[in-house]
Amino acid sequence: VQLVESGGDSVQAGTSLRLSCSASGTIYWNYCMGWFRQTPEKGREGLAAIFTGSGSSTYADSAKGRFTVSQDNANNTLFLHMNSLKPEDTGMYYCAADRYCRGGLVLHVAGYNYWGQGTQVTVS
Q1: What integer is the mean pLDDT of 55-63?
Q2: 77: which of 23, 102, 117, 118 is 20 to 30 A away, CA to CA?
Q3: Which pLDDT score is estimated for 27?
Q4: CA angle, corner 60, sides to 88 and 48, nearest 5?
Q5: For the residues 99-108, what does the mean pLDDT come to?
Q6: What are phi and psi of 9, to 5 degrees?
């Protein structure tokens, strides 16, 4: 599985941004996909996860209400829509994938075997 993130940018606080994750190399259907953010202070934290088969999603408390994960199955692409961005949203954002959504690990690094290279988001 190859994952390529894009859409990161330097933006002003209060604005919106959409990140994309293009998946290739395997069957995308029925995969667990997640978005993570890495900062020096918190390390790599899970933000949102979605099971591509059903579209069922879950969010970390830090993402609820402002971030939305969506998918375009026809193009094997995952999105993270981020609204009302804050300076504390600054970080490197990673897309992750795994064949299974494993219960309590969907928002944890240990729940994923495949990772993209990341895309930088800076909010000032």
Answers
A1: 94
A2: 102
A3: 61
A4: 95
A5: 88
A6: -165, 170
